[in-house]
Amino acid sequence: MVNLGKKIWKRGDLFIWLTGAGLSLSLIMTMALVLAIVVNAMGTFWPGEIQVLQLNDGSQVLGVQVGREQIPNYGSPDEQKEVYRVQIKKANRDIYDSDFVWVDESKIKLSQTPEVVVAVARREWGNFFGYVKEVLDGDQVIAQGTEKSLRVVQDLLPDITAKNKKIEHIEKKEIGAINHKLERVRLKLKELSLKGITKGPKVDLLNQKIPELQSQYNALEEKLAKIRSSQTGKIILQTVEGREKILPLYQVLDIYNPNSFSLVDKFGYFFKGINDFFWDDPREANTEGGVFPAIYGTALMVMIMSLMATPLGVLAAFYLREYAKQGTLVSIVRIAVNNLAGVPSIVFGVFGVGFFIYIIGGSIDQLFFPEALPTPTFGTGGILWASLTMALLTVPVVIVSTEEGLAAVPKGIREASLALGATQFETTWRVVLPAVMPSILTGLILAMARAAGEVAPLMITGVVKLAPSLPIDGLWPFIHLERKFMHLGFHIYDVGFQSPNVDAARPMVFATTLLLILMVILLNMAAIYLRNRLHKQLTASAV
Q1: From the CB of residue 118, how many other CB atoms can be counted at a distance below 10 Å?
Q2: Is 503 strand, coil or helix?
Q3: Count of CB atoms within 10 A of residue 275's CB?
Q4: What is the pLDDT of residue 412?
Q5: Are residues 423 and 441 in the same domain?
Q6: CB 63 within 8 A of CB 50
Q7: Do both 302 and 440 map to the same domain?
Q8: How far apart are CA 346 and CA 333, in angstroms?
Q9: CA 335, CA 330: separation in Å to the nearest integer?
Q10: CB count in 10 Å sphere of residue 243
């Protein structure tokens, strides 16, 4: 038996089993984490049935069951028994002051699923669960009762949505463009004033533009007022206790009866919810609506970071490996680069604020935007400075990965190129660089994954809870790198840890987390595909 144990130890079978167990445990933990996120995220968009709970005290609770847990029992072992409670999303936050309530199962006398009930998605105050008393157009009643009113409102909803989109377009696009032009005129007048020019053709030409722009602004305001005055519809809702809520129809985003849904209807609503989550703007302190601005900001920040970090890291690695004389100084630089990879990210954020924002951004404002001061243009947080900060954070990864790739290129290939008459630059550019490109892309993959998930540096260099406009739009100069932006990682932090309504925010946290994971995977898959394709081309050309 002892000899058998020694043979197993010498053959390394035990170590093989240990490494296999470690790999299996890592995979199980990763899959369990991802599965938990997926289940909780997908449940956000699935329409649950609305139930009415009759309690022993005669009261009623209407809502969707979203959770169930065991109530701890601290009595003697003989008295202990399993007791559970359920969490009900009763919505109607403006009436009940809370979205959720816990109900002990022992207090539930009867649970029913009414055939006719409505769920109303609103622009404010979240969802409403209950019944419809009547629908009015001005003071005229056009429908009564939940069933008939539901059909009427669903017929009116496309026109209501079209008017809301038209109002939003006028406010954000047309009026926004006029305000942008007025601000440019104001700044140009101030610029001329700083130069001592207060009269003349330039000043007169600018002053002539203001009444014209103001006239366009007033016309759009009248147009908005006309559209709003046509929105006279309203709906009178009732809770299960009979309390009434008057809601203007322009506040209704959607209305439906989940208890009447077939399985096909539920899947249709499920995919509609996912689509809205991708493309809509956030509402209700980011706990509802979509995350499109955060997706946009995350993708743009990662792209700008990649454009900054990759060339910088590759050039540094080529110099250290190909041109610098190997010695103590180069070794110290390599140690410093490796240590930079372990510096806490918030330190890079503090550096970004001090160097990029205050020094470089402040200098840019003094030189090119003095008319805008004391309001800073580049001397405050923005997507450019956040991207540069993240580039510094991730550039050590690119340097190390590129250097490892350069070290793997055989010295004979360089010597053969030089022997054929190529210069060192030509050898580096046409022979070494293509051969090391897969390693460069490996570093880029790791850099993108880290940049997409980092939050701490962004919190002080440009990310915000809600950005009023995107960094790229239709207003001159079209690309506004000085603007603040939204980020999926910060969105998760803000909703998950800063929201006063934790239960309402939790579904959004899981959904955004899953989206961020998918986004990182897609970015990595694109870079991996490009790396493998380059590797095949280089292998084929070498043959």
Answers
A1: 23
A2: helix
A3: 12
A4: 87
A5: yes
A6: yes
A7: yes
A8: 22
A9: 9
A10: 12
CATH code of 86's domain: 2.30.30
pTM of this prediction? 0.89
Total domains in the chain come to 3
CATH of the domain at 444: 1.10.3720.10
Three-state DSSP at 369 gives coil
List all residues 6 or more positions away from 429 whose beta carbon is below 8 Å from its beta carbon.
none
Max CA-CA distance within the chain? Answer: 105
* 8, pLDDT greater than 70: no
- Tell me the β-bridge partners of 120: 128, 255
Give every CB contact of residue 301 below 8 A, 6+ residues apart in sequence.
383, 386, 387, 390, 451, 458, 485, 487
Helices (H), 230-290: 263-279
**Short-list 216, 258, 250, 210, CA closest to 234:** 250
- Give pLDDT, residue 541: 57
User: Tokens 């969802």 sit at which residue?
Assistant: 127
Name the residue range of residue 491's domain.
296-542
Token pair belonging to 132: 């419809």
Instruction: Specify whether the CB–CB gap between 483 and 383 falls below 8 A.
Output: yes
| C-alpha distance from residue 136 to each of 247, 248, 534 (Å) | 10, 9, 65
Residues 215 and 317 in one domain: no
Q: What is the mean pLDDT of residues 456-467?
A: 92
pLDDT tens track for 263-300 = 999 999 999 999 999 999 998 878 888 999 999 999 99
Of 417, 363, 390, which Cα lies nearest the Cα of 487? 390
pLDDT at 1 over 80: no
- Residue-by-residue DSSP string for 82-104: -EEEEEEE---HHHHS-SEEEEE
**Residue 31 within a domain:** no
DSSP collapsed to 3 states, 22-52: HHHHHHHHHHHHHHHHHHHHHCCCCCCCCEE
The DSSP element (H or E) to which 54 belongs, if any, is: strand 51-55
pLDDT tier, 539 (very low <50, low <70, confident <90, very high otherwise): low
Place of tokens 């020019």: 197
**Is 141 found in the same domain as 111?**
no
Are 74 and 170 contained in the same domain?
A: no
Residue 470 and residue 396 share a domain? yes
- Domain annotation covers residue 245: yes
Per-residue model confidence as pLDDT tens digits over 337-366: 888 888 899 999 999 999 999 999 999 999
Span 245-267, average pLDDT: 94
pLDDT at 340: 85
Give the model's confidence band at 74: pLDDT under 50 very low, under 70 low, under 90 confident, else very high.
low
